[in-house]
């Protein structure tokens, strides 16, 4: 059986629920650990790709 802590992507444990995601296929960070990419998505999941610049959501170019 796969271990969730090894096979899952980002996760958040809240008081009444746990939120788990798949591992992204692409993850680009600044040296400070903020999501950032200029000409492509900073993070890509199999079902969609939010864009971010300097840690803030941004529209695609």
Helix content: under 10%
**Dominant shape:** elongated
- In the predicted model, the low-confidence regions spanning at least 5 consecutive residues are none
Cα radius of gyration in angstroms: 13 Å
Helix segment tally: 1
Got a strand count? Answer: 6
SS-derived structural category: mainly beta
How can the largest sheet be summarized? 2 strands, antiparallel
Oligomer: single chain
Q: Roughly what fraction of the amino acids lie in strands?
A: 15-25%
Query: What is the CA–CA distance across the termini?
Result: 41 Å
Q: Biggest sheet: strands side by side, in what order?
A: 1-2
Q: What do the pLDDT scores average to?
A: 81
Pattern of helices and strands: HEEEEEE
Describe, in plain words, how this protein is organized in 3D.
Helices cover 7% and strands 23% of the residues. The strands form 3 sheets. It has a two-stranded antiparallel sheet with strand order 1-2. The longest helix has 4 residues, at 4-7. A hairpin with a 4-residue loop joins strand 1 (11-13) and strand 2. It starts with a helix and ends with a strand. It is built from 1 helix and 6 strands, in the order H-E-E-E-E-E-E. The model has no long low-confidence stretch (mean pLDDT 81). The chain has 61 residues and is mostly beta strands.
